[in-house]
Amino acid sequence: MIEINIPENVEYIISHLEEAGFEAYAVGGCIRDSLLGRNPADWDITTSAMPEEVKKLFKITIDTGIQHGTVTVLLDHVGYEVTTYRVDGKYTDHRRPDQVSFTRNLSEDLKRRDFTINAMAYNRSKGLVDLYGGIEDLKYKIIRCVGNPDERFDEDALRIMRAVRFAAQLGFNIDSETKKAVTKHAEELKNVSAERIETELTKLLLSKHPEEVEELYDLGITKVILPEFDECMETQQNTPYHLYDVGHHIIEVLKNVPATKVLRYAALFHDIGKPEVRTTDENGVDHFKGHNEVSEKMAGKILKRLKMDNATINDVKRIVLWHDYGIYGGIKKNTLRRALNKMGPEYFDSYIIIRKADMAGQSDYKAAEKQERLDEIIKMHDKIIADNDALSLKDLKIGGKDLMDIGVDKGPMIGKILNSLLDCVMDEPGLNEKEKLIEIVKKEWL
């Protein structure tokens, strides 16, 4: 008999419901993750007790979704969702049931769930309840719908993305019939809110297999949620610097950056503007001049469309804009200081990560030269930081009050002078001393 280690509070809720004459089980993702040896983030409980019956059994409850049968039980300041067995009505919006009806039958509740690996329930008295082959699909690493996949996706189109997301997170394959249904119903994702699309896409990108974005393309999902990526998958790069089309290059870059939200989205969008700027010369060689600026604008537009938070949008845009810096060499300390001023010194490490991943996704053509240039940029950067060189106005040894003390009028002139002084010290860091800067002001501005 399979045994699952259930947390003490979850066991208390289940046993308390059973003692009152009801059925109760831990259900869904927590059972799947436990069987896979993973640590469940949440523990959901399903029960034959009606919502009002659940509320009578526990001291502190919250009606978090009582119309759908969900009551949150608070124990030790932690909430546990307890949901009555239910049967869903029609899904006219391809997202949520128009109405639900409660049932005392566990099998009716489990068969409305999305995938077999999420349709298992467990308690200590009855053991594992697996009516739809979830254990078998875990064993063979398969994502398969419960029952008819057409019905499951017609009910809730978000399940289309969840199928690919689970495959990416778990390293599983999607069952062939489930795949066919995904392709058939992908267009229905237009009925799903941008926020939910973003949540699933982010989980996929942050998984161990971000390259599964190609599955989104193959199944027709990106055509609906990210058509710009489809254009990349269909845009060749006829240049000695590249091995892949734009889309597959992006996938290689995704695989080579750490799993943070900003870096994975920066990787996804760093070349998203290439199809728009592609030109081909008389020798048949492709060029993508200005693609970083176009990609930055497109990244911002797409992320706003996905309702991403402003902080993430700004960070992604900054990295996308600067990801190509230094590819042609000729960088000196003064030009690097100015680049850091515009880029923001705090983004330098992210720039290096994306730059290295970008190079890893290219051909070997002049690879040694590219690496040498990048190493030189890193070396210069480290020296600039070690020497405390001024990179912004706050680093100047003089401020607005100092300028007013020597006779500069308040207003726009102060900012103009300070920016001019910063420009000077970026060329000659030794000038960043108060006395020297005052001398420059008196000579050139007063």
Brief sketch in words of this structure:
The protein is α+β, with helices and mostly antiparallel strands and 446 residues long. The chain has helices spanning 8-19, 29-35, 51-57, 106-110, 134-139, 149-155, 158-170, 176-185, 194-205, 213-218, 222-225, 227-233, 246-255, 261-269, 274-277, 291-305, 310-322, 333-343, 348-360, 367-386, 400-405, 412-427, 434-444; strands at residues 24-27, 44-47, 61-65, 70-75, 78-84, 86-88, 100-102, 120-123, 127-130, 142-143, 173-174, 279-280, 286-287. Strand 12 and strand 13 form a beta hairpin.
What are the key terms here?
446 residues, alpha+beta, 7-stranded mixed sheet, elongated
The count of β-strands is 13
Helix content: 40-55%
Biggest beta-sheet profile? 7 strands, mixed
> Count the helices. How many?
23
Radius of gyration, whole Å: 29 Å
Mean pLDDT: 95
Assign the structural class, choosing from mainly alpha, mainly beta, alpha/beta, alpha+beta, or little secondary structure. Answer: alpha+beta
Beta-strand residue percentage: 5-15%
Spatial separation of the terminal alpha carbons: 89 Å
Inertia-based shape: elongated
Low-pLDDT windows of residues: none
Strand order of the largest sheet: 3-4-5-2-1-8-9
